[in-house]
């Protein structure tokens, strides 16, 4: 197993390199980069990016043959200062290798627009995404696994039929639609005002006692977590049911029953370990999805400033340091979680051996 872990760790390097390389060159050639956005804002509405380059209006506007869109009529010196500010005064290959060298040292630079380092921004937004991700995953597994087992053992019964109907309807409703429904019903939208509408904690959080802080924290997370659970809950329930159904009819289960093993002994002593392998396979993807992408709409609706919202705004604003820095970190964490998942397989079922792979 140790040899397999070393191979997988070494494989992370070319995988990470390929992902970063592909995304770097795609983003670089995409229109609407930070220089073009600064030019557009300079010609129309003033912005922080433009004000960092110049503090006075240009008295003379010159024509330029710049390759940037909308650059006609803009002072070439102003464009040069923009290029220097954002690092576009250097050739693309030099910028690429410079980025790789800095990222090897976990130096992700500073955001173009937020005047903070990428690490500080991610650290600042992490509590929101971790809170949503951990609690959503925990409750989804706590609810879905027992429900999926119950559906598998009572396959075809009335309980299985109506619960499948509820699960299917829940899966068909997008999480953000369900979030809006929760707000309308329980957050002062039209009916009740039982839960807060925005933020992870109250304004007076620091003045509360320890137990009051826990209560306030859970009070703010109740609706976002409920909305986030919906999609993962439905998928995981059906996956659990199908995994157990596949195992229930196998020969080793029939043999265990023939030997007189009790129903619970067969279910949890034999079937559970094998059926749960497929469930565990989806855990890393579920964590990454909930942490960094799946929570974006939930963060917007409930005014939670987390990593999903940060990544979305960075792409819209072409904040390249944040885009590539967060991509590097998320990819690295995802690859490590996948390795941990494979190691977990061998702990649950010692018959699995990755040494030959």
From TrEMBL:
The keyword Transmembrane helix applies. SUPFAM superfamilies: MetI-like (SSF161098). Belongs to the binding-protein-dependent transport system permease family. NCBIfam families: PRK15133.1. The keyword Membrane applies. It is a multi-pass membrane protein. This is Microcin C ABC transporter permease YejB. It is found in: Cell membrane. Residues 126-341 form the ABC transmembrane type-1 domain. Keywords: Cell membrane, Membrane, Transmembrane, Transmembrane helix, Transport. InterPro entries: MetI-like (IPR000515), MetI-like_sf (IPR035906).
């Amino acid at each position: 197993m140790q040899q397999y872990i070393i191979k997988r760790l070494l494989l992370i390097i070319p995988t990470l390199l390929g992902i970063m390389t592909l995304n770097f060159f795609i983003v670089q050639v995409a229109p609407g980069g930070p220089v073009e956005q600064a030019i557009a804002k300079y010609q129309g509405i003033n912005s922080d990016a433009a004000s960092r380059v110049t503090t006075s209006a240009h008295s003379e506007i010159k024509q330029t043959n710049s390759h940037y869109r909308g650059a006609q009529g803009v002072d070439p010196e102003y464009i040069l200062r923009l290029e220097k500010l954002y690092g576009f005064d250097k050739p693309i290959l030099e910028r690429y290798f410079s980025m790789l060298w800095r990222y090897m040292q976990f130096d992700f630079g500073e955001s173009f627009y937020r005047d903070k380092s990428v690490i500080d921004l991610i650290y600042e937004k992490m509590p929101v995404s971790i809170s949503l991700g951990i609690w959503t995953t925990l409750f989804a597994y706590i609810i879905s696994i027992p429900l999926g087992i119950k559906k598998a053992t009572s396959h075809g019964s009335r309980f299985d039929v109506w619960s499948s109907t509820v699960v299917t309807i829940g899966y068909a409703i997008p999480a953000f639609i369900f979030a809006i429904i929760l707000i309308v019903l329980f957050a002062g939208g039209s009916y009740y005002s039982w839960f807060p509408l925005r933020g992870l904690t109250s304004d007076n959080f620091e003045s509360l006692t320890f137990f009051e802080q826990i209560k306030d924290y859970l009070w703010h997370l109740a609706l976002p977590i409920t909305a986030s659970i919906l999609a993962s809950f439905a998928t995981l329930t059906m996956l659990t049911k199908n995994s157990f159904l596949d195992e229930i009819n196998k020969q080793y289960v029939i043999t265990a029953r023939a030997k007189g093993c009790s129903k619970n002994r067969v279910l949890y002593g034999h079937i559970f370990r094998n059926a749960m392998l497929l469930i565990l396979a989806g855990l890393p993807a579920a964590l990454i999805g909930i942490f960094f992408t799946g929570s974006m709409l939930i963060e917007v609706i409930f005014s939670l400033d987390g990593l999903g919202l940060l990544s979305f705004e960075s792409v819209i604003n072409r904040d390249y340091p944040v885009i590539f820095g967060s991509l590097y970190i998320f990819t690295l964490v995802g690859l490590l979680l996948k390795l941990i998942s494979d190691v977990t397989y061998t702990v649950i079922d010692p018959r699995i051996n990755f040494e030959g792979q």
